[in-house]
Give the backbone structure.
Amino acid sequence: LLFFAAPTSGASVEDFYKGKTVRIVIGFGPGGATDTISRLLQRVLSKHIPGSPAVLVENKPGGGSMLALNTVYNAEPKDGTVIVSFNQDLIRSQAIGAPGVRFDARKLNWLASTDDSVGMCAARTDSGIAKIQDIMNGKELIIASFGKGTISYDPPAAMNTTLGTKFKIVTGYQGGAAQRLAVRNGEVQGFCTSLEPMTASARELLEGDNPITRIIVVTGSKTPDHPFARGVPTAETLAKTEEAKKLLRAIHLGFTMTIPFATAPEVPKDRAQALRAAFEKTFKDPEFLALAEKAQQTIRPKFGEEVARVAEEMLNLPPALANQLK
């Protein structure tokens, strides 16, 4: 019976997806790292999903990607034709009881995350800020942000609390492209985001003999071996107390599952498993890896249960630490 059941189950998934369209709903506008990765996936993912459905990318910015996640979780079809990608720090928003959360990250069907990264903050070279100590010692740096509860807001806000930095955070930018444009035009003096995705999409801000910006601080316990971050201090090493270090570690954790993909909890198990397998095959597919290399995107993925474990760790914050983060 088991022998005959397996192909029948596989055929049902294939039959379901044949002729359908799978939408990847992303919580940011066009041009950013999440949009770039999703459009690379769009070109390869179909061949690894049983039935080879069409794959489309839909931008749904708002609330630092909260709108996209809330909508997919509550209002989109639950049949396996909708995938969501969002800012991973929304998991921490749930952990601290932030307003606007209408999802439970524990119940999501986690498919994959794209990169194991670190956070960074960069300042325009004409801002008068040469190193993080400048804004620890009283100077102000105006930065562009997607909004509270995101990788562009929470790290600098936490550094303001733990290190005494003077980041002035301007919210409302709908993605990395808008954020970078604001920096390029001098509308703001800097920005914070993930290191590897940013250095691919914003190389023009960092490279050359006279770069527009320089990285002044990264998250994590040690500086990564990255050409744009060498010699840059980590926020954790600048913290004076163990309490401050713990808070900064909690902020850093989300960067280890950068650019995640998931479906709503109600998606049938066999379809969720098929999508998870399709993401794993795609992230290892030479065609996709060649596209990612050409787009200068770093791919260090996690899959399924591994992503779920990081999410669970982000949700299981000690109450005192959660209150600090809140």
Remarks:
- The radius of gyration is 20 Å.
- Confidence is low (pLDDT under 50) at residues 1-10.
- The longest strand covers residues 109-115.
- The chain has 15 helices and eleven strands.
